[in-house]
Amino acid sequence: MRIGGARNAADGARPQPPLIASPALQANVGGDRAAALPPSLLGPSAMRRQLPAPTILVFDSGLGGLTVFREVARARPDARLIYAADDALFPYGQIEEPRLVVRVVAVMEGLIAEHRPDLAVIACNTASTLVLPALRARFALPFVGTVPAIKPACASSVTRRVSVLGTEATVKREYTQALIRQYAGDCRVTLVGAARLAGFAEAELSGSPVDDDAIRAEIRPCFVDDGGRTDTIVLACTHYPLLTARLEHLSPWPVRFIDPAPAIARRVVELVGAATADALPVPSEAVFTSGRAVSPGLAAALAVHGLSVPGTGPSRLADQVMPRI
Question: pTM here?
Answer without folding.
Answer: 0.78
